[in-house]
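Let's practice the habit of predicting before peeking. Look at the sequence and jot down your guess about where helices and strands might fall. Then scroll down.
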Amino acid sequence: CEQALEHSDTVLPGYTHLQRAQPITFGHHLLAYCEMLLRDRGRVEDALKRMDVSPLGSGALAGTTYPIDREYTAKKLGFSSASANSLDGVADRDFCAETAFAVSLVMTHLSRFCEEIIMWCSWEFKFIELDDAFSTGSSIMPQKKNPDIAELIRGKSGRVFGDLITLLTMMKGLPLAYNKDMQEDKEAVFDAVDTLKLCFVPLIPMVKTMRVKKENMRNAAAKGFINATDCADYLVAQKNLPFRTAYKITGELVALCIDKGCTLETLPIEEYKNICGDFDEGVYEAISLAKCVNSRNSYGGPSKENVIFQAERILSLLEG
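Done guessing? Here is the structure:
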């Protein structure tokens, strides 16, 4: 959120199929991961609710003949309730599997984020540069600066997924109630949680200290024809052309730009008019990257105003 606020107007290409698609901001991109992590936090909280059941008094499997008050003992132990079925109280490990799943999904999101960090660090993108504390050199190539921390976090996701699969596989064929197989639950749950906690230790300062190369991001956005949709929208909104016609005209313009080695922003107005006489100088304002981004100001969009609003909303949730 802090990085998103700082880069609420830093233009970045948005991608689909790993191809430049439409202009967004770096802040908007980062906030997508904030939303994922907020859902992850909700899943952990939900898992805690279903975990909040005391099995004490279930006995080996058939309860007890002693006249105990299970609700009383549950409250004394800090639980909200007691298990309603003694067999289930002994044989259930849903709370382990659910915890491991919640952790696995967090790791999925961290792995996706780290993959993008790794790409952004490459010379092919060069959108960011990691602090030296979170990079390593090569054993033989002195020019290398490798994003090893991000790669390690990405790799640790597989380990956590393995913990989840261990639990599911262990439980899938067990008859009720207790079976010694279940002793495997501790190692899997503890390893999954410990691994996640370990990954957050370097990830937080790595993101906090990464240097964002604004000009490289903007240059990539300018060269990718990601304002082509806005050019077509201009013909629809300002010149009343059907979108299918505007789409075809814009496609011809992009092909012309590729042939001439220029962008839609630098293509002379005469070239626009040669393809469609409806164009006028207003097209340049319509396809400016800042206009393209900030005109997408609907709730959840990438405009600067919305990025600031969403980042502050999330920070408020965290503080609450």
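How did you do? The chain is about 60% helix and 5% strand.
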